[in-house]
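In this section we walk through a basic example: taking a raw amino acid sequence and producing a predicted 3D structure, encoded as discrete structure tokens. The instruction is simple. Fold the sequence below.
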Amino acid sequence: MKITFVVPGLNLTGGLRVISIYADLLSKRGHTVTVISPGEKKATLKEKIKSLLPWKDYVFDSGFNDAFFENSNYEVIVLKKEGGIKAEDIPDADVIIATFWATAEWISGFPEEKGKKIYFIQHHEVHPWLPVKRVIDTFKLPFKKVVVAQWLADVLIDNYDQKEVSVVTNAVDHELFHAPTRKKSDEVTFGMMYSGRQYKGSQLAFDCFNELKGRYPCINLVLFGLESEKDVVGLPAYARYISQPDQEKIRDIYIECDAWLFTSKIEGFGLPILEAMACRTPVIGTRCGAAPDLLKTGGGLLVEVDDDAGFLLAMEKIYKMKEEAWLVMSGVAHQEALSHQWEDKVAEFERAIA
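The resulting token sequence is shown next.
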């Protein structure tokens, strides 16, 4: 098949990483794959002035980063223009895949020769900073939908009366994310991925760590994220933050930790859960995204969303856990991650879009 992925931009988000993996694996399976993106956002006059002054340490950042798509074995087209993509910008294909609400809008009027329309949905993007009505309208478009979690399929079926919905859950790159059996650290280290988005719950992790640090001064917190350290709101005094680490460094961070903290209030999937588990790190996760399914076998502890006290208790339980019990949990986490292979998922994805 000739397959076109239409993305809203190139960046280091988990969603774009998943798209890059599918593009690579589909290409290796003999398909002709093209990923097409608008050009890098340019600074407005106001943003240029703010950067020159500088205004409150403001630095313009377009967010553009093509690291996931470097040295690809498929074609990556980055247009010279910003904004929407038009039919004449892309090659004819058998299948065209929208990957975000805006891209679904762009391709909705494309002619048949651009390909059968598929909407790959990794989150229910009804956030207040987005044009919610337009987002909702894209979920009603007459495209075949492919989603990364059963809860997303349920939302599309129940709320938007969608009939053609396939669930293809994510996997993990086991050549990249792996670790030998290790002991629990005497000075327990918690890890997390930071985001300034309120629904990601980073402040919950900070509050719980600060409370626990007061009881057990030896504990540590290590975290990474896309933001620079100065933009991390509420970073605990004893925490270590790494901005935009490469994938090998992320693996080292997972291995350093005795438990990974997943604090989202709502999430499409939560890829760091699987990556941490592949590195034998148990996860403390809120009941959203893929956490309920991934942790049900015992590779971590599941906490209800907004149960701050429960999350703190779970962290304390990991701290106090005997090494033998921790090793069992670590092993279960690793086995659960091993059951999620990209080779299996790309075959499911291929069938879903055919």
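Looking at the output, two observations stand out. The chain has two domains: 2-167, 189-338. The domain at 2-167 is CATH 3.40.50.2000 (Rossmann fold). In the next section we compare this with other chains.
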